[in-house]
Design brief:
The chain has 73 residues and is mainly beta. It contains no helices and six strands. It has a four-stranded antiparallel β-sheet, with no helix packed on it. Strands 1-4 form a two-stranded antiparallel ribbon. Strand 2 and strand 3 form a beta hairpin.
Length: 73
């Protein structure tokens, strides 16, 4: 029960990549810190979580993106 989260950074910046459950509780923090410009792939292992809807949130300097994902076991 693993998925890849891919994103591109045009410039070096601070990044927080987290996964939240449907009620907004953070269930995983995949990265927190500075990254250089480039393409990144992070693995999210949902083995310990229940099936359902989750959200991952990417926060950088001046940019925030939240996307929905469904965990099916």
């Amino acid at each position: 029960t693993e998925t890849k989260i891919k994103f591109d950074l045009p410039v070096s910046c601070n990044v927080i990549l987290s996964v939240y459950n449907i009620i907004g509780k953070e269930v995983a923090r995949l990265h927190s810190g500075k990254l250089a410009a480039g393409t990144y792939n992070y693995s999210f292992d949902g083995t310990e979580l229940s099936s359902g809807v989750y959200y991952y949130k990417l926060v950088t300097d001046g940019f925030t993106e939240t996307k929905r994902m469904v965990l099916v076991k």
